[in-house]
Structure formats: structure tokens, C-alpha cells
């Protein structure tokens, strides 16, 4: 297949209900293929927000890691993870552990960090029996579809992420910060506009305020870029939320989101956000060996409920420190 053909619009199948899809003949060397077509593939991601490549035949973590590195260069180590992942090589991780019968709603990976991944790469080694798609939604379209009054408030105030680290739920301190040393954790928090305080029981509580609406660094489009719905208590299954509130208290949940001024976000707002995402969702079931590239700033992604084994590896690349990622340049204090 000549390299120029990948850049031609007709090579990519476009449908409104699924990500852009590129079918390829299985190459003898997937890593060499990725190096050869890197720029053409990246151009398609910039144009369409996400690209599913079918036919590469990715079989194992070593091959997947080599292909991802060819496409994206050095992969990012994860920091501030909200749940532990299994590492399969430098910057190559298992997908976030989450109950198979519960969907992970739309979000932008690590959008609560000051330095965010601009590109996500997914490699499907084992597809689920049913469900389990990594669906996508255009962030500019979602912003336009949401009520102006709501988006204007979030654009002005930003959004607040609160976390309480403990030994039972979510990522541990070592998994989130790469260390358990208190001084090192405090230095990281100061450098990354995170308000942190140690509680009497030794756990850590943090707050960080980030922008909910950002300008895409390449396209200039205004994007709804956050994890307001995904990390909010009202997105949890009712029985899970009830357990966490009973166990930790309403103000000390392992993670939650608020308006930028610290006031709570109502269940109706979270439902509206998730319903709007669903109206703009594009999905395609995984097949073994698939590769997906996602523009993490311009495109939200989700993971749908599934049955059977599902093995999808994830890499993050192109770290970007967005000029408008933090509304005030410092963590808000309530």
C-alpha cells in the first residue's frame, strides 16, 4: 500500500455513529508500518479526533508497545492516577480497572493535571465477548450542545476536583505520586497547583481547580475538556455511592467534583452532562489487533460495560501544559 494512499480522504471510512475507521492489510512488520505511516495517521487524528486502525494484528504487549512508541515517541508515565493500573513497559498500561458491568462515562484522560496527554493510544489484544467499546465524542460539539448558562459558569469558575487518598479505594499515594515521601508529595502538589493537607489519620486530602473549557492548541476550537461528570458522586452506581458516603462521609469521598467556587454539583447537572455525551457518542466494537488513536483534548472517550475477557493496553503521549488549564494559577481554597 503506497504511503500517500493513507492521507487520501477515501481511505478512511466515515460514519456518524462510529470513529473514523481505516482498514489495512496485515503488514509483515507492524512496527515498521507504524513508522512509515506515522505522519499520515496523525493527520487523520487531527482531522477526525479519533482513528481506529483495523488489520494490524497486534498480538502482545511487546509488539503493541513498540508500535505505540513509533507512532507517538516517548510515552508518558502516569501521575495522579485515580485508580492503579498494571504496567506493561515504559508508559504502557492496562486499561483502568473498573467493574465490567459498569460503564466508565465520557471523560478526557488526566484532564485534572496541569500537564495533560495530548494523544491517547489504545491497543486491543483481546476483545470482549459483548460490549466494552472505547467510544468517543467530539468535545467541541458537546460544548455547543450544552446550555450556555452552564458552560459559561464553568468557563468562568472552572471545576474543582477533591480527593481523599486512603488504603482501600482508588490509587495509593505511591501509585498516584510515585512516592510515599511526604515532603516529595508536598513539593509535587505545590508545583502542580494542588492544595494538599494531611488528615489526623495520616490520609491526604487534595483540591485542585482546573478549567472546564479550553482552546485546542492545534485547531483553535473551544472544547469541553474535563472530568466533571466522570469523577462526580452522582455518576456512581447508587449502591456504590451509598456505600462510599456511609463509609467515608459526604465530604470525604475518595474523589468528587464541584463547581469552581466549591459548591456541589447537582445530580440533575451530572445527568445532563452524561445525556449530552451520549447524544454525541460514536462507537465501534473492538476486534483483536485493533489500534485506536484519540486526540485527548478534542475528543472525550468512555468504556462501555462488557462481558468476557477484555485486554486493552493504553499509552499516553504528547504532554501539553495548556495555557488555560488552571483558572487562577493556583488551587482554589474553600
Automatic annotation (TrEMBL):
Pfam families: TauD. InterPro entries: AlphaKG_dependent_hydroxylases, TauD-like_sf, TauD/TfdA-like. GO terms for biological process: antibiotic biosynthetic process. One of its GO terms (molecular function) is oxidoreductase activity. PANTHER family: GAMMA-BUTYROBETAINE HYDROXYLASE-RELATED, TAUD_TFDA-LIKE DOMAIN-CONTAINING PROTEIN. Its cofactor is Fe(2+). The keyword Iron applies. Gene3D superfamilies: Clavaminate synthase-like. Keywords: Antibiotic biosynthesis, Iron, Oxidoreductase. Transmembrane segments: none annotated. Residues 32-316 form the TauD/TfdA-like domain. This is TauD/TfdA-like domain-containing protein. Coiled coil: none annotated. The lineage of its organism: Bacteria, Bacillati, Actinomycetota, Actinomycetes, Kitasatosporales.
